[in-house]
Amino acid sequence: MISSLPPGWILIFGSLLVPLLRGRLRSAYILLLPAIGFGQLLWLQRSLSAQLEGGVVLLRVSTFGYSLDVVRVDRLSLVFGLIFYIAAFLGVIYALRVKESGQHVAALVYAGSAIGATFAGDLITLFVYWEVLAVSSVFLIWAARTERSYKSGMRYLIIHVASGVLLLAGTVAHYFDTGSIAFGHLGLDGLGGQLIFIAFGIKCAFPLLHNWLQDSYPEATVTGTVFLSVFTTKLAVYALARGFAGVEILIWIGVSMTIFPIFFAVIENDLRRVLAYSLNNQLGFMVVGIGVGTEMALNGTAAHAFAHILYKSLLFMSMGAVLHRAGTIKASELGGLYKSMPWTTTCCIVGSLSISGLPLFSGFVSKSMILAGAAEAHYAFAYILLLFASAGVVDHSGIKIPFFAFFAHDSGIRCKEAPWNMRIAMGITALLCFLIGIFPRWLYAILPYPVEYQPYGVTHLVGTLQLLLFAALAFGLLYRSGFYPPELRSTNLDSDWLYRRLFPSAWASITGIGGRAWAGLLESAQSRITATIRSVHRHHGPAGFLERTWPTGSMALWVAVLLALILLLYYL
Amino acid sequence: MQGDTETPETGVPHGPDTDGAAATSAPTTDERKYWLDQPGNVSKIYYGVVAVCLLLLGADFFYDKHAEHPLEQYFGFSAFFGFVSYVFIVFAAKQLRKIVMRPEDYYDQ
Fold it and tell me: Which of A80, A124, A252, B9 is geometrically suited to a Cys-Cys bond with A238, CB 3.0 to 4.6 A?
C-alpha cells in the first residue's frame, strides 16, 4: 500500500499528526517519516530498475478531460528524491529540540512538497507543489519572529508566488501551443517555455532574480535555514535539468551566477548571508552543467546537487549552531570559537573542504564532472571562468566561514558546544561528505546516465590541489600583510535595493507630486467656496446690509416718498 | 534579526531551545592554553602551506599532463591561476565595498 502513495505525501500528510504528539514520541515520529519515505524510494528504484530509463507513470488521474501524471519516476527524479529525503532526515535531527510544533509541520510539508514536485509528471501537478512549497517554506522564515524576518518573508512570498503564477501562465501558453501539459523537455521556442523558464529562473536565483535568497535565508530560524538551503533552489535545478537541458544560454547564466556572488561574499559580514551568496555560486555550477546538456554534464549537475545539498546543509548547520550558542553570526563579532565548539569547528571545516572541492571530499568528485563536461563539449572559455569561480569558493566558503567564526582574533566569547542533536546531525552529514569523496562510485551509481568518469587522475588531482592551495596561500599572504578586507558591520546593496529602496522611493515621489497637485486643487477650490460663503455672509448674514431690521417709521417714510414720486410722475 | 541580537537573550528566538544558550564573554583566568594561541604556531601553519605549495609546483615536473584545457598543459598554470584569481577577487571586492557598502541599519531607517 505504501508503495502506491505518491512520494512526498508521507511527509505532507504525516506532518498533520505532529501537533498531537509530545516529547520522545514526537521525535521518533518525525524521524520515522523521512526514513519511511526514503525506504519507499529505494523500493521503487529496485522494483522498477529495468523500466526507469524512459520513466514510469505510477499514478495518473483524469479530471476535466485532462490526464495528470501525479507520479512519474525516472532516474533523474530518483537522484533528487533520494537526496531530498536524506536532507530532510538530517534536518529533522538538527531541529529535534525545537519545541514549537508549527516549525516541524512547516519543514515537513516543505520537504514533502519538494519531493512531490520532483516526481510530478505534468506541469499542473508541478504547479500545485510549487505553490505549496512557497507557502510552507515562508513559515520557516517567519518563525524567527522578528520584524526583519516578517518583512523579508513577505518579500520572499511575493516573489515565489509570482514564480508560481508565471509557471501557470507558461503552462497555459504551452498547452495552447502544443496541446500537452506533460513535464518533459520544454525548450525556449514557444512563449510557454519562456515563461516557465523565468519561473524556474526565479526559484534558481538567476542573476538579478536572485536576491530573495540572500535577503530571506539569513533571516530564518537557526533550523529553518538548514531546510531552506536544501529544497527550493535544488528543485529549480531539477526542473531546469528536465525542461531545459542543453539550452545554451544557461551556460552563460550559470557562469555569471558562479562569479558575481563571490565578490559580495568577500565583503559580507553576516556569515549565514555569506553562505547564501555561496549557495548562489554553487547553483551556477549546476546551471552550467544543464546548459552544456551532455550526459556527462547532466550527470555532473545531478551529482553536484547531491553533494552540494549535504555540504551546504552542513555549513548552515554549523553556522546555525554558532548563532544558537554565541547569539550572533556576524564575522566582526566572532572569532576564537574553536575553543568552545571543537566539534562544530571540525564539522564546519569538513563542509568547507567539501565545497572547495578538495580531493577526498564530496565537492571534488561532483564539480569535476561538470568541469570535464564543459571541457569535453568545447566550452573552453566557460571552463576557465569556472576555474576562476572555484578559486572564489576557496575564499568565501573554504576560508572565510571557518576562519572568521572559529579562528581569527579571539572574540572572548565562551559558550557551550552545540546541543547533542545538532552535533549528531553535523557529524553524520560530515561523514557523508567524506564518504562520497572517497567512494564516488556510490554516488555515480545512482546518476541519471551511466558514468565512465574517474575523478582521481594525476593531472586533475595535482591541478586541483595547486589551484586550491595557491589560493589559500594568497589568503595567507594578504591576511598577514593586512590587505585582506576587515570584517565590518554593514549592509551591502544588491539587486534588492531596487525593490526595497528605488521603487518605493520613486513611488513615494510620484505619489508626492500627485499629492501636492491634489492638495493645491483642493486648496483653491476651498478658498473659492470660502470666498462665496463670506460674500453671502456679508450681504445676508446677521450684520449684513440686506438682513438688517428697519424701524416702522422709516418704512412709512419711504412709502410716502414712493407715493410722492408716483404722484409726481402721474402729473408729468 | 541578528541586527538586534547583540546579546544571547535576544538571539533565543532563533534557537530551538533556550537552555544553556548564554555565552559568557569573560574568559576565565585559568583557561586552558591552546596550541594556536602562540603566535609562532600560526606562522608554522603558514609556512607549512608554502612548503606544500612548492611541492605541488615541483610535482608538475614528474608526470605527463592530460589536461582538460590547453592552458592547463603549461607548467604551474593551475597554481598561477589560483593565486592570481584569489588576489584579484579580494582587491575587486574591496573596490565593490566603495560602491555598495552602507550602514548596518540602512533598510531600517
Answer: A80
Residue A284 contacts B, CB cutoff 8 Å: no
Q: How far is A34 from chain B (nearest CA, A)?
A: 20
Distances in Å between the Cα of A495 and the Cα atoms of A151, A264, A510, A568, B96 are 16, 12, 22, 95, 14
- On whether residue B21 sits in a domain, the answer given is no
Separation CA A277–CA A267 (nearest Å): 11
User: Is-contact A285 A304, C-beta < 8 A?
Assistant: yes
Nearest CA in chain B to A400: B90
Residue B13 placed within a domain: no
Query: Given an 8 Å threshold on Cβ–Cβ distance, is A223 in contact with B16?
Result: yes
For residue A92 the three cell numbers come to 529533522
Give me the number of domains chain B comprises. 1
Average pLDDT over every residue of A31-42: 95
Residue range(s) defining the domain that contains residue B85? 30-104
Instruction: Residue A431: name the closest of A353, A358, A368, A347 by CA.
Output: A347
Asked if the model's pLDDT at residue A154 lies above 80, the reply is yes
Is B9 within a domain? Answer: no
Which residues from chain B sit within 8 angstroms of residue A462, using beta carbons?
A: 56, 59-60, 63, 78
Question: Å from B38 to nearest chain A CA?
Answer: 12
Contact residues, chain B, for A474 at CB < 8 Å: 82-83, 86-87, 90
How does pLDDT run across A440-498, given as a tens digit for each residue? Answer: 999 999 999 999 899 998 999 999 999 999 999 999 999 999 999 888 888 888 888 88
CA A268/CA A487 separation, integer angstroms: 8
Q: Over 80: is that where the pLDDT of A399 sits?
A: yes
Does B33 touch chain A if contact means CB atoms closer than 8 Å?
no
Please tell me whether residue A57 adopts helix, strand or coil conformation: strand
In chain A, which residues have their Cβ closer than 8 Å to the Cβ of B87?
474, 478
A28: CB partners within 8 A, 6+ apart: none
Least CB–CB distance from A219: residue in B1, B9, B76: B1
Contact A414 B79 (CB under 8 A): no
**How do residues A231-254 score in pLDDT, each as one tens digit?**
999 999 999 999 999 999 999 999
> Cα B83 vs. chain centroid, distance in angstroms?
15
